Amino acid sequence: MKIKQIPEDFIVNEEIELKLSKDHLNYSVWKLTKKDWESFKIISAVAQSLKTKNKFIGFAGNKDRNAVTTKYISIYLVPKTRIEKVNIKGAKLEFMGYSVNRINLGDLKGNSFDIVLRDLDKKVELPKDIQLENYFDEQRFGNKGNTHLVGKALLKRDFKEVCKLLGFEVNNNDYVGAIRKEQRRLLRFYISSYQSFLWNKTLCRTLIKYKEHHKFKTALEELIFTTTNVKNFKVPIVNFDTEDNEILDKIMKEENISKNDFIIKEIPELITQSSERSAFIDVKGIKYKWGNDKLNKGKLKLELSFFLPKGAYATMLIKKLSCYF
């Protein structure tokens, strides 16, 4: 099976509630279509082109690099005529209107996906509805698969290692100063990546007790998928104020990490509160169609379309569906 053989095989459209106006307000709202761009890097490219700061560009969610994706961004106090002149390879901006408010992470409802899987040998019947383990997938950990390591180094106060992993220029051994020049949103993302890594491990060890399951090997770890429906439950995203959890506590001991490590006094703006994430999501109304694969002679392709709520990964659904092939 081949996924993302070409970027057009993986199309993501953001679904978000926009409250737009024709009046010239503080924020202009744009639909950003991108190809072969990481979310943070395209925002930086737009900001640089407009000679503004990244923090003045709001967006609701991160999108895959190796895909054709649309997302909505808000830009603060930059004239529409200047934005219309932005010319970035692999990106297109379409004016939607004006808004009183900035676009933020909480505004995202979810994403609709149109995906083509290639190089398949035979047609199989797929379920229209499925219970999907709500794991964070590999793109959560960056192209190098190491953003969680950056997050762990931040928590362990190994600021020298953070600068090494990120390639930061350091003057006079001021590692904290070099780190604080980075966007706060991005630094929090690194810590969140490590939290996601621990969350995946916790869910895996919880699900392994179910006899009816199969395993899927990824670059970072082995995931457990159940083959029967399980009553949904919450798994904590660990932080300084997380309640005790036997499985999570054991994993943290193995990782040599403690809850107190999440209180970063040297960079207090990175301190957040604990939360929970559902172990499963219900994916309903999956549509699919089989056809001949013109890119792989003698093989079949599978066209899939579905909707996922924010925070869920289409690639994880494909991993689970792969057990049917």
End-to-end Cα distance, whole Å, is: 9 Å
Percent of residues in beta strands: 25-35%
Number of helices: 8
Q: Which descriptor suits the 3D outline?
A: globular
| H/E topology pattern | EEEHEEHEEEHHHHEEEHEEEEH
State the helicity in percent bands: 10-25%
Mean pLDDT: 92
- Rg from alpha-carbon coordinates: 21 Å
Q: How many E strands?
A: 15
Biggest sheet, in brief? 9 strands, mixed
Unreliable runs, pLDDT <50, ≥5 residues?
none
Class from helix and strand fractions = alpha+beta
Describe the structure.
The structure is a single chain. With 325 residues, the chain is of the alpha+beta class. The protein has 8 helices and 15 strands. The chain starts with a strand and ends with a helix.
Write a compact overview of the structure shown.
It contains 8 helices and 15 strands.
Write a concise keyword list for the protein shown above:
nine-stranded mixed sheet, 325 residues, two-stranded antiparallel sheet, 8 helices, alpha+beta
Question: What is the topology?
Answer:
Elements: E1 2-3, E2 10-16, E3 27-35, H1 39-50, E4 57-59, E5 68-76, H2 80-83, E6 91-99, E7 108-120, E8 130-133, H3 147-155, H4 159-166, H5 175-180, H6 184-207, E9 213-217, E10 222-226, E11 234-237, H7 246-255, E12 275-278, E13 280-283, E14 287-293, E15 299-309, H8 314-321
Parallel strand pairs: 2-5
Antiparallel strand pairs: 1-7, 2-7, 3-5, 3-6, 4-5, 7-15, 8-13, 9-10, 11-12, 14-15
Helix pairs in contact: 3-4, 3-6, 6-7
